[in-house]
Design a protein that fits this description.
Layout lengths: L2 H21 L5 H12 L3 E10 L2 E10 L2 E8 L5 E6 L41 H14 L5 E10 L2 E10 L2 E8 L5 E7 L1
Antiparallel strand pairs: 1-2, 2-3, 3-4, 4-5, 5-6, 6-7, 7-8
């Protein structure tokens, strides 16, 4: 076992011990880690933390797969993925590995329904890349220049959307794009 692995195991053990004392029975950090890696199609876990979310404890992972960094949230009580977002666009000419069509063995294929009984789509008709392209096309049609910041799936306005963010200096531009239809549900510029 190398030094990094020992350090990671020690930190996980401390986090789990503190969390169990604070919250009661929880999903183990290694099980949550496997669930997060399944959602990103593998990769390298750059960081892991256990935080208190609105519905209880949540493991948050930063995972790098190919040229894409993901933030994955896993409910520490159930082991279900509750959030998946891309933190950076792939480098030019590099194709990021997409999340797998089906999770690996021993991993739940669909999280427990939440938000009005609708589970987070695992393979939505409108991909993450397509949502970014839709937002870029909209900006181009309005002659707005901005740099891509992030994209993540979220529950907004009664539906699952890709939340796509751009920035131009101090100006933030945000889109909500329906994961099923590609419809722009919201477009907002904040200065």
């Amino acid at each position: 076992m190398n030094r990094t692995t020992k350090l990671f195991a020690g930190v996980c053990a401390l986090i789990i011990f503190a969390a169990v004392a604070a919250y009661g029975q929880m999903v183990s950090a290694p099980a949550a880690r496997e669930q997060a890696l399944a959602m990103t199609g593998g990769g390298t876990v750059d960081s892991m933390e256990l935080v208190s979310g609105p519905d209880g404890p949540v493991y948050r992972f930063i995972i790098t797969n190919a040229a894409t960094r993901f933030e994955v949230s896993v409910d520490a009580s159930t082991g279900n993925v509750t959030g998946l977002s891309s933190l950076a666009a792939p480098a030019p000419g590099v194709t990021a590995a997409p999340p797998p069509a089906t999770p690996g063995p021993g991993v739940m294929a669909t999280p427990t329904p939440r938000h009005g009984g609708t589970a987070m789509p695992q393979n939505p008709p409108v991909s993450r890349a397509a949502a970014v392209d839709i937002a870029r096309a909209y900006l181009a049609s309005r002659n707005i220049r901005a740099d891509f910041r992030s994209v993540k799936m979220d529950w907004e306005r009664g539906r699952w959307v890709w939340e796509v963010e751009f920035r131009d200096g101090r100006t933030e531009i945000e889109f909500y794009i329906d994961v099923h239809s590609g419809e722009i549900v919201k477009f907002e510029i904040e200065r």
